[in-house]
Design brief:
By secondary structure, this protein is α/β, with parallel strands linked by helices. Strands 1-2-4-3-5-6-7-8 form an 8-stranded mixed β-sheet, sandwiched between helices. It has a single domain (56-295), classed as 3-Layer(aba) Sandwich (Rossmann fold). Helix content is 36%, strand content 17%.
């Protein structure tokens, strides 16, 4: 909410001093009026019938959303990482400040530790179906969104980066852009032997190495199976990864980029200084926002006039 300030005229001001006070006050109010309005944050407590739980999500609304009742806005779905929650993006980064430059809606869903798939080990954990069949329709019903592929993008960090790319590959008709920061693209290769690296627990989610669930959610398998026609229909993919990140993260990022190039999939991969940390993600989400806005055809931020 905007701050309301009260100005009181000092009783001792007389003559020229009164004139000087009002000139100063006018300049102060003029400066305030030129400051961009803040975005609005909301929380929706959505009761998922598929999962049987309340799965809240955060909503970042553009500054002019309330003032422009006739406008519709593109949406960026921003996914959190493993051990994270739906509030991470709005509490651990400056996403609200960065978003104030763009006329788009940002949704940060609750994904728990699901890897955004329909789990092989827990029948009720249908998080892929939740995102596609419940979350997106609910957002479109509650807010003035552009309800078409060209008005929808998805991105995330680590587990969320994997999820964003998976949704882009499996549901190209839903998204025009998919972005990843430090995406855990190699998760479907995890075995019991990887327990020391923290990957063993994922076997329960994806099932054994030869399980249908694992194959259906393996980014490399999905990419290799693409026909030229299917490749041409995909969204634009952007990914980046810190050169100081774990080999479990960095190596599959480079490998998937090479595979995308072989398949002639429009994409960009950046190797950048940094590790698996919020310092890195807070920096890179600004670039993800910029590219997502470009693909969503959001008007570029206005440059401040030089006076």
């Amino acid at each position: 909410m905007s701050e309301i300030r009260q100005y009181r005229i000092p009783l001792l001001l007389k003559g020229p001093r009164v004139l000087l006070f009002f000139i100063t006050l006018s300049l102060a109010l003029s400066t305030q009026s030129q400051t961009p309005a803040s975005v609005r944050l909301e929380t929706v407590n959505f009761a998922s019938k598929l999962i049987g739980k309340t799965l809240p999500y955060k909503v970042v609304l553009p500054a002019d959303y309330q003032r422009s009742p006739g406008s519709r806005y593109p949406v960026l779905y921003l996914l959190h990482g493993l051990s994270g929650h739906y509030t991470d993006w709005t509490t651990r980064t400056n996403i609200a400040d960065y978003a104030s430059q763009y006329r788009l809606i940002i949704i940060t869903p609750e994904g728990n530790d699901s890897w955004y798939i329909d789990s092989a080990g827990v029948a009720a954990d249908k998080y892929e179906s939740y995102i596609i069949d419940e979350l997106i329709p609910d957002v479109d019903a509650r807010y003035r969104t552009i309800q078409a592929r060209y008005g929808r993008a998805i991105a995330g960090l680590s587990m969320g980066g994997y999820g964003a790319f998976k949704f882009g590959l499996k549901y190209p008709g839903q998204f025009v852009f998919a972005g990843s920061m430090s995406g855990a693209f190699g998760v479907t290769r995890a075995t019991e032997k990887d327990r020391d690296a923290g990957w063993g627990a994922f076997v329960k989610v994806f099932g054994p190495l030869d399980s249908p669930t694992r194959k259906a959610n393996d980014l490399f398998e999905l990419t290799r199976a693409l026909t030229p026609a299917r490749s041409a229909a995909l969204p634009y993919f952007y990914s980046d990864c810190g050169t100081e990140d774990s080999p479990h993260i960095f190596d599959p990022n480079r490998e998937l980029s090479d595979l995308f190039a072989q398949k002639k999939i429009p994409h960009e991969f950046r190797e950048l200084p940094g590790d698996h940390s919020w310092v890195y993600w807070d920096r890179q989400v600004q670039e993800v926002l910029r590219i997502a806005a470009e693909k969503l055809r959001v008007p570029a931020p206005r440059k401040k006039a030089i006076r």
